[in-house]
Specification:
Blueprint (H helix, E strand, L loop, with lengths): L2 H15 L8 E4 L5 H10 L6 E5 L3 H10 L3 E3 L8 H8 L4 E4 L4 H4 L7 E3 L4 H13 L8 H11 L2 H12 L1
Parallel strand pairs: 1-2, 3-4, 4-5
Helix pairs in contact: 1-2, 1-6, 4-7
Amino acid sequence: KGHVFFVTVFEAVARQLNWTPQEVQVIIAGGGENEPAIKQQIEQLRLQRFFSFTGTIPQTLLLSFMRLANLTVVPSLSEGMPVVAIEALMQQALILCSDAGGLPEVITDGSNGFVFPTLNAEICAQKLLYLYQNRHRQLINPQTLLNDFNTRFSLPAHMQKLNLLLV
């Protein structure tokens, strides 16, 4: 869903900043039909030491990864219901995502995450570079992310919307 694109962007930024695997690690969580193509791209660009794959994992573990990671990236080419973006808000995780499908309905650039135009490698790289260079700064307050989740996507928020519709 955009991971091959992101591997290419990552390679360009890693080369520009001369990253080592000791400085930056990318975990691709979950499994799927695109995994062989992603692994092939990683091998072609000789990035194997930077990337790890979890395969299919329980949802609770995925959410734990999000909470612990410095950045969650959703480089989707198309997106229906942007569940990963909503989960990132819930986990107070900083997110970089494309503007595909429903993602802009959840993430607003600079407010509760960072957004790049789908398949725009230059802007994606600029934002990844910015996020890395500012990794020790709190660019977005984690409480803002949780508040956004609670206000728009939590069960109580949905129940309140349903009650308003039923009145």
